[in-house]
Amino acid sequence: MTAASLLRAAPDAVATAARRVMARCEELARVSADTASIERVYLSPEHARVNRLAAEWMRELGMRTWQDAAGNQVGRIGDPAAPALMLGSHLDTVLDAGRYDGIAGVLIALEVVRLLRVPSGDDGWTVPLPFAIEVVAFSDEEGTRFGKALLGSSAVAGTWNDAWWDLADADGVSLRRAFLEFGLDPGRVGEAARRPDELVGYLEAHIEQGPELDRAGEPLAVVSSIASARRFQLVVEGEARHAGGTPYDMRRDALLGASEAALAVERICSAEHHIVGTVGRFEAFPGAVNVIPGEVQFSLDLRGEFDGERDRVWDALARDLDDIMGRRGLRWRAREVHSAAAVFCAPLLQDVVAGGIRATLPTRSEAPPVIFSRAGHDGMALGAIADVGMLFLRNPDGVSHHPDEAVSAGDVAHGIRALAEAVLLRGTEPA
Ligand code: HGY
Ligand code: MN
Ligand code: MN
User: Fold this and answer.
1) 202 falls in which pLDDT band (50, 70, 90)?
2) Domain 3-227+342-427 falls in which CATH fold?
3) Of 58, 301, 333, 374, most Cβ neighbours within 10 A?
4) Hey, how many other C-beta atoms are within 10 angstroms of the C-beta on 23?
5) Which residue did the predictor score with more confidence, 140 or 338?
6) Rounded to the nearest whole angstrom, what is the distance from the C-alpha of residue 46 to the centroid of ligand 3?
């Protein structure tokens, strides 16, 4: 089931591009708030440094570059009047991150531009397509600093919510203050918004953040949909008391209640087919060894293939927490800090990604794998204004959000070619 290859590139050009992606992933990994690990969060000095690096690499390709009103770094090549096919991913990271989550997608997109661009005659460059190409390095896909994910891509999608300005980081710095300190104007964040008619679609290459491709021995896959997500900050309140003098029948231990809640997340979610719930942050107060915890604050990240299933599981969890806290004489409350509906990748973009994979791996007989992404991506926000398509690259053992995250140069080369072929295939369709 091969698809004709539309890419005219010297055989070793793609291998050279893959080596450049791997080297630049190492270079970007060194731009971190922590010398012992990779940490690059929204509106940080590290964010500013990688934006400057990305802009330099975009200009080298003959792209026009700008940083938008939400701190996303953008490059554009092609007809200034035409709508754009947007490629990209994110350059922000989680804490103690890997080198490739998001980063590889931005760099692969730049290599696709390098392979597709042609001289425009006025000492510049263009692309032989019925649309322009934009590469966006989104500034906050993870939500590491303020808890709310997809801030950069939400601004581009025009779905920014002014309630977010009061979100604060671990040091109590509000999003509004961080904007100002980064040199951005909160009052102008709306200028980052793009109109649907400006885009012909959004295509993102990303490492798979799970083991499916590795287990199947597949280098690439088409993504069918991106998981719907909800994130909560929960608080359990009991009573801080002396760890020695307080008999059990008088204790209202918030940590034990919150611990039962965390186990309920695992019990209830694991009984469902496509639902995962994770407690990633868990903190007891006052946090002294000889004081019964009077309060616990913890996070919940809840995802599912379909919004309705995910919401039904949240309702079941809430009922379970009522039982647990009632039995223990505790109180609990939850603040929802992030919610993103499932986004189903557009059939046309799924088709061009599948065609790109077939043109890249011509010896494959059957259709490329199609998998649902349990990880969130900027496409969840972009889905509000554009068709979304995603290409997954194999990630050995599926390790991600961890320093051992990996991808092979060979699979990156496959990914570069497949994305380039997909862009060319999209160019054979009406813009
Ligand atoms: O959390 C996620 O799924 C993504 O990596 N931000
Ligand atoms: Mn990512
Ligand atoms: Mn991530």
Assistant:
1) very high
2) Aminopeptidase (3.40.630)
3) 58
4) 12
5) 140
6) 17
Residue nearest to atom 6 of ligand 1 (CA): 142
95, 276, 401, 405, best to mutate for ligand 1 pocket (most atoms within 8 Å of CB): 401
C-alpha distances out from residue 418 to 112, 204, 262, Å: 9, 11, 41
Are 73 and 87 within 8 A, CB to CB?
Answer: no
- Ligand 1 atom closest to residue 374's alpha carbon, by position in its atom list: 3
Q: What pLDDT was estimated at residue 3? A: 64
CA 239 to centroid of ligand 1, rounded, Å: 35
Q: What is the mean pLDDT of residues 190-208?
A: 98
CA distance 133 to 55: 15
CA of 301 to the centre of ligand 1 (A): 10
Strands (E), 325-387: 331-340, 343-344, 370-373
Q: Which atom of ligand 1 approaches the CA of 209 most closely?
A: 5
What is the second-level CATH architecture of the domain 228-340?
Answer: 2-Layer Sandwich (3.30)
33-72 pLDDT, tens digit per residue, is: 999 999 999 999 999 999 999 999 999 999 999 999 999 9
Indicate the residue type of 256. L
Q: Which of 204, 377, 399 to mutate to test the pocket of ligand 1 (most atoms within 8 A of CB)?
A: 377
Atom of ligand 1 nearest to the CA of 102: 5
Rounded to the nearest 10°, the torsion over CA 267, 270, 272, 276 is: 110
pLDDT in tens, 342-376: 999 999 999 999 999 999 998 777 899 999 999 99
Average per-residue pLDDT for the chain: 96
Q: Where in the chain are the domains?
A: 3-227+342-427, 228-340
